[in-house]
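Any chance you could type out some protein's one-letter sequence along with its backbone structure tokens so I can compare the two?
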Amino acid sequence: MLKLYNTLTRKKGKFVPLKDKKATLYVCGITPYDTTHLGHAFTYISFDVLVRYLKFKGYEVTYTQNVTDMNDRDNDILARAKKLNIPWTELVNYWTNRFLNDMQALNWIKPSNYLWASKNIPEMIILIKKLLKNGYAYEVSGSVYLDVAKKKDFGKLSRYSVAEMLRVAKDFEEDLTNSDKRHPLDITLWRATEKNQEPHIPSFESPFGKGRPGWHIECSAMVIKTLGSQIDIHGGGHDLIYPHHESEIAQSEGATGIVPFVSYWLHTGTVHYQVKKMSKSLGNLVLVSDLLKKYSANAIRYLLLSHHYREPWEFFEKDLIVAEQKIKVVEKRLVDSSEGKEEFEQAMNNDLDSPSALKILDRKPSLEIYKALGFISNF
């Protein structure tokens, strides 16, 4: 029986899907203004292995992932596009395609649904209207906000105090000083177009007036559109627990009245390089495209799977050299058998223990295990 660690409950639990032998999964995608680094790859390959293992166990999987190509903030996409003097849509398309190419080079299975936020505005508006109708949201001067005080269990995922939420929200550049908000932590659902707004900033028509949707409502709308009002698994990086995923819960449950919105919340650990978390803002990036020039895709995949998906870890190139050696040995010894399958399932049933699964593959290089871990495409 597969057991997964649920961030909401803080413990492992048996995976029991809402519908027998069918699993629904949503994973928050990239903000495409720059290139794919190893931290991105760790998250998306980790969930790729989850999808593969669910299929290995006989589940029918419907998997949605998004592209955050726009939101309520004057974000990196808009700033980068303005600096380059190109339309923001051109920048988005370029870096999204680069991401897809990098990930597919690592034998990543493209999700069942791959959605751009900017192409799903009507669904977001429907959700915002439901929140207004249900009394969870309020409108001020063409902007709409979620009133977190109305959601009595707000904070149940992160378990943060208000002080902790304010600190983290500030780090995420959330709009905490907006005088239109009843409380600084209230969530922006729709941001009204400002007077004298620069022409490069997108604006969409809505019943509330011209504007653009908030970051958090985008994922709620795309989950509900493609997977329904209640889903089995929702994933993303650990840093999305608050404010993003906490906000998704409040919005989705407030709009639909269905609790819980998600049965299992899964979050990946952070990848570090040169002591600090790998991030575009710090510039300490290890790019997948650069690694692929020196190492095989399977060596990179082996390195990623040698770390448990919830484990923070630091990248050292020497570990990638070892990974290359190990996967080459495995590939030379591969046999078309199911030897080691029972041990493999015991490891993976324990919250996707891929490091232990790799050790089994090292000892018993079964083609079946090799396929299940995604070293060759089998779906």
